[in-house]
Recover the amino acids of this structure.
């Protein structure tokens, strides 16, 4: 690998990552540091002179949850509520500077912490970003099954601890999916993300604590940036976060779970926010637009056809199933049968997982029959909890932000397309979901 990178005059001695998880360490593992020198990414069109065989990624220390009984899960969810809350923003944040294309590192004699280093912990199903340079040196999340469109991501997270006064994040320019923002010890350095043009170049985002050396826990959140690791100064350390009890959650849904419908970044949607609010600190999202219990425009997959890839492999403590809006044109009987089949399958494969089921995000009476069908399919299952958003009138009125009617909160919370939540709507929806979850979990 070093000969390849030397031929490219690069300092990116990275291994390739494949499979689920990627990263780990026991809280004391220190980054190996990679190669030294300036971080001068070669032009993305450069061809490597020496082929390299991908290395095997380290075993994660944040494996899928193994739950022995339902009560164990319930106790974990209850204790997690105490840690829940929306992250605040730092009053004295580091200076975050977006880099320019293929720029050298701004850190003297910097070394690389490659993306498969055991000091980096991922909440995502990480794989090598591609086979051609520079994607063969980068990783991406593949936790969401888009059927014939391949595997992709809604959002993923990178966590580590560092004492570095300054570090850099190596990213490929991919417009919105390259967006990323940083939390330091649980607070946002800035709620405004850094993003780069869709030009395929490599960029370094500089995070500068202005000389203050201190151990800090860092979390990076991103839709699906192609990540090439971290650059740090000689003597700086990067270690894996301490192993603490984590609530692993998967939210299965449609476009509302997927993202922001062009109104923002996916890490700002209700699903990502819900995880913070209720202390689910190991959150996976599987949202695919236009899908539902039955809805699955080719080549996408309906919910039941996604659970084997997007839910079961992660063995979550909790699952949220949120959908039905795209099933409005299906017959109620057929819809109920499919919901029942899905819930039967989930209960069989995850007997010790708590499952929350919420109906369509719509106040319309045309979906009430489908809402009732979902409720009936949930029935009295021991580990299933139905959240009746329609009966509680989470969404009211007939307007939207482009055409307000003055008859309900849809004037604020529904976007101009009349379907998807606005950014304010996602905040509101996350809050309502969190309230419903707390109400149930408090009874455990």
């Amino acid at each position: 690998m070093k000969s390849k990178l030397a031929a490219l005059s690069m300092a990116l001695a990275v291994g390739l990552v494949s499979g689920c998880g990627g990263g780990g360490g026991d809280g004391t593992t220190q980054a190996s540091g990679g190669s030294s020198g300036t971080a001068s990414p070669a032009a993305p069109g450069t061809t490597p002179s020496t082929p390299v065989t991908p290395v095997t990624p380290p075993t994660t220390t944040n494996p899928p949850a193994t739950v022995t009984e339902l009560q164990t899960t319930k106790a974990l969810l209850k204790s997690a509520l105490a840690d829940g809350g929306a992250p605040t923003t730092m009053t004295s944040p580091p200076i975050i500077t977006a880099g320019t294309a293929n720029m050298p590192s701004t850190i003297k004699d910097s070394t690389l912490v490659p993306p498969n280093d055991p000091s980096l912990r991922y909440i995502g199903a990480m794989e090598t970003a591609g086979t051609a340079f520079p994607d063969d040196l980068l990783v991406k999340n593949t936790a969401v099954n888009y059927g014939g469109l391949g595997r992709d991501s809604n959002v993923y997270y990178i966590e580590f601890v560092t004492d570095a006064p300054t570090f850099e994040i190596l990213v490929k320019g991919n417009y919105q999916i390259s967006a990323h923002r940083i939390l330091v010890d649980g607070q946002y350095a800035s709620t405004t993300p850094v993003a780069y043009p869709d030009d395929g170049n490599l960029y370094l985002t500089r995070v500068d604590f202005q000389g203050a050396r201190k151990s800090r826990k860092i979390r990076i959140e991103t839709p699906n940036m192609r990540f090439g690791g971290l650059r740090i100064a000689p003597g700086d350390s990067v270690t894996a976060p301490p192993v603490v009890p984590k609530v692993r959650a998967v939210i299965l849904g449609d476009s509302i779970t997927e993202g922001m419908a062009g109104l923002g970044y996916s890490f700002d949607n209700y699903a990502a926010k819900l995880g913070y609010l209720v202390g689910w600190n190991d959150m996976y999202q599987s949202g695919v637009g236009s899908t539902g219990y039955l809805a699955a425009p080719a080549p996408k997959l309906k919910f039941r056809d996604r659970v084997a890839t997007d839910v079961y492999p992660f063995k979550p403590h909790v699952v949220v199933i949120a959908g039905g809006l795209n099933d409005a044109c299906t017959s109620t009987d057929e819809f109920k049968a499919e919901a029942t089949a899905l819930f039967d399958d989930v209960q069989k494969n995850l007997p010790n997982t708590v499952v929350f089921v919420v109906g369509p995000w719509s106040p319309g009476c045309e979906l009430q029959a489908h809402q009732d069908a979902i409720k009936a399919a949930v029935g009295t299952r021991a580990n299933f909890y139905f959240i009746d958003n329609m009966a509680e009138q989470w969404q009211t009125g007939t307007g939207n932000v482009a055409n307000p009617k003055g008859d309900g909160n849809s004037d604020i919370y529904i976007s101009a397309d009349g379907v998807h939540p606005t950014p304010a709507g996602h905040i509101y929806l996350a809050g309502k979901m969190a309230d419903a979850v707390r109400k149930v979990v408090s009874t455990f």
